[in-house]
Specification:
This protein is mainly beta. The chain has 2 helices and 8 strands; from the N terminus they run αβββββββαβ.
Length: 131
């Protein structure tokens, strides 16, 4: 999963079902963490707490490339999961990380962001990197 995520330079997370694996796992890219840290792995994650406050956010998805829209998500979330060694952990998140957790757990529940997003539009991101 980490290899699939690393291959998408604009990707920040990926869920197992997105690459044909029928497991309740998602990975958050090390790009979001301090140098030297690896990808964060969430096995059998569950949301244990959502804030009442909702915020409208721009969202996209590697499963529906270049399609973006507005989603309403809780601005804070608490997730419980297991790591790759079987250790249970809890992660409190806000802002982008809260959005990622909700988005990826939606994938695990068979929901795509386009199922509830508004103002859907296509936008091809052009990289400024040259081969």
């Amino acid at each position: 999963m980490s290899e699939a995520l690393a291959a998408c330079e604009d990707g920040v997370a990926i869920a197992a079902p997105q690459i044909g694996i029928s497991l309740r796992i998602f990975v958050v890219s090390k790009r979001l963490f301090q140098a030297g840290e690896g990808d964060a792995i969430f096995i059998n994650p569950i949301i244990t707490k959502l804030s009442k406050k909702r915020v409208v956010m721009e969202e996209g998805c590697l499963s529906v490339r270049w399609t973006y829209g507005k989603t309403k998500r809780a601005d804070k979330v608490t997730v419980q999961a297991y790591d790759e060694l079987g250790n249970r952990f809890t992660w409190n998140a806000s802002d982008l990380m809260a959005q990622i957790f909700q988005h990826e757990i939606d994938h695990l529940d068979g929901i795509l962001f386009i199922d509830h997003a508004t103002n859907l539009h296509e936008q091809k991101i052009v990289s400024d990197k040259h081969d």
